[in-house]
Amino acid sequence: MTSSRFDLRGKVAIVTGGNGGIGLGMARGLADAGADIAVVGRNESKSAAAVADLRQRGVKAIAVATDVTDKAAVAAMIDRVAKELGRIDVLVNNAGMSIRKPPHELELDEWNKVIDTNLTSAFVCSKLAYPALKASGNGKVINIGSMMSIFGASFATAYAASKGGIVQYTRACANAWAPDNIQVNAILPGWIDTDLTRGARQQVSGLHERVLARTPAGRWGDIDDFAGIAVFLASPASNFVTGTAIPVDGGFSVMA
Question: DSSP 3-state assignment of 61?
């Protein structure tokens, strides 16, 4: 039986980019703890499959096709979730992308696309969800950063800038919204086996071997490794935790 500290029954969570990868891993964890889920993503077939997966776990789940960089689209999404699922308690800002080029080769439109998708979308979604999160009485925002929030990589120019920004944005929101009993935290994934990193392994020679050599756990992460941290940060168990950036990386960030 779920401990009351980790019980999310009666709660509603929005997970952007929740139709695959780390987002789906977190959505599954939240659903297993009892939360109803709104999966937000642009790929409608992937979102439908994710919703079917989540519903099998005994919760309500809906898919909302949304461009999270578009303020009007996000406002419509927030309104629909509140109407169909009744409330909003948790927002997971997970939508993300990368364009792998060194800074001198990156074009301005490419920079803007990555920053808008990874960082600006978190601002737009959080700003527009804020009234509902405040009304819930104990709102939670979980922003997804990266190892690139800590480290730099020649091929991750805009991505690293966006993920560094996520950490500072998380801290600012944590301070601003503490009086409203909204906790805001970030997760910093290490090297996780997803479609995004499979592309990186194809484009960056030797990446797979270097990751394994540096990761004390001796493996790439799995999306289900994010279920527990998602439940913790979404639940009353984390009510005195805010403004943090927690690595989930198999020890990658502490390896000398």
Answer: strand
127, containing H or E segment: helix 121-136
Domain carrying residue 80 = 4-248
pTM above 0.90, yes or no: yes
159 is catalytic: yes
Residue 102, classified by CB atoms within 10 Å of its CB into exposed (0-12), middle (13-18) or buried (19+), is exposed
With respect to residue 255, please indicate whether it lies within any of the assigned structural domains: no
| 16 found inside a domain | yes
Based on the structure, what is the number of domains in the chain? 1
Q: Which residue out of 159, 169, 177, 232 is catalytically annotated?
A: 159
CA distance 162 to 5: 33
Which residues of the chain carry a pLDDT beneath 50?
1
Q: What's 150's domain CATH number?
A: 3.40.50.720
